[in-house]
Specification:
This protein has 91 residues and is an alpha+beta fold. It contains two helices and three strands. The radius of gyration is 16 Å and the shape is elongated. The termini are far apart.
């Protein structure tokens, strides 16, 4: 029974990763800029929805996209926030 549980766990993780990738590619758009805080928050929601038990980090987007570090000026506070621009989807 232990071997079967382990197999199901591994298969489940793979399926969750596929669901996460699908949702990430659907949510984040090439050509857009997102603050690192926003990316982390939204990835966290996607991970939770897909029961993917990994702590979300903005750098996780590098798994699926080619990114460029940039800054975005917050229109309310006039402060510059660290961000990523999504250049393309990784093949």
């Amino acid at each position: 029974a232990t071997l079967e549980k382990e197999f199901n766990r591994l298969v489940g993780v793979q399926n969750n990763e596929d669901r996460v990738k699908f949702k990430v590619l659907d949510f984040f758009k090439v050509g857009e800029k997102y603050t690192k805080a926003y990316i982390k928050t939204e990835l966290g929601k996607i991970y939770e929805e897909c029961e993917y038990t990994v702590v979300a980090k903005a750098t996780d987007l590098e798994q699926w996209f080619v990114l460029k570090s940039t800054q975005i000026t917050n229109s309310l506070t006039k402060k510059r926030d660290m961000a990523y621009e999504i250049l393309s989807i990784k093949e």
